[in-house]
């Protein structure tokens, strides 16, 4: 990290505030889930609402499966499930559905936030894709 940034981020409170500002204001949708098998949503930013129509209050406690439907490619979900079970990251595209039921191509990446070797939460960075794989 550049020395000047390292100096600015010395305090834990500042580090948290910087991360929160980035995540809250990202143009990309950001979802954070717990690290259990269920993968319950803990946080969704404003861009998630713009992308899917669901507010954070509507999705906290649910799982990202609310976005899936009949045309969602099960092979992509299998690949994701396997990656998560090994603690690996994932990137893929699949049909998802907005709150109003309209389908769109979700292009997303899922990464673990680890402390040591243990995934504490999962983070997803999501945007509308142009083509399924
Ligand atoms: C952080 C995170 C974000 C996810 N975001 C999406 C998503 O945007 N769209 C989607 O179809 N599945 C998403 N999922 C995947 C599902 O929650 C679930 O892991 C996937 O369907 C595989 O598990 P299953 O076969 O038990 O359903 C996400 C998972 C995690 C952990």
Describe it.
By secondary structure, the chain is α+β, with helices and mostly antiparallel strands. It has one domain: PAS domain (Beta-Lactamase, 2-Layer Sandwich), CATH 3.30.450. Helices cover 32% and strands 32% of the residues. It contains five helices and five strands; from the N terminus they run ααββαααβββ. The chain has a five-stranded antiparallel beta sheet. β1 and β2 form a beta hairpin. The longest helix is centred in the N-terminal third of the chain and has 14 residues. The protein starts with a helix and ends in a 5-residue tail after the last strand.
What would you say about this model in short?
This protein is α+β, with helices and mostly antiparallel strands and 133 residues long.
Radius of gyration: 16 Å
Main sheet: which strands, in order across?
A: 2-1-5-4-3
Level-1 CATH class name: Alpha Beta
Here the CATH topology equals Beta-Lactamase
Please mark out the parts with pLDDT under 50 across 5 or more consecutive residues, or reply none.
none
Q: Mean pLDDT, as a whole number?
A: 95
> How many domain regions?
1
CATH homologous superfamily classification: PAS domain
Ligands bound to this protein structure: flavin mononucleotide
Provide the CATH architecture.
2-Layer Sandwich
Write down how many β-strands occur, each being a DSSP E stretch of 2 or more residues. Answer: 5
Oligomer: single chain
The total count of helices amounts to 5
| Shape descriptor | globular
Note the gap between the termini. Answer: 35 Å
What percent of residues adopt helix (DSSP H or I)? 25-40%
% residues in beta strands: 25-35%
Based on secondary structure, the structural category is alpha+beta
What is the helix/strand order?
Answer: HHEEHHHEEE
The major beta sheet can be summarized as: 5 strands, antiparallel
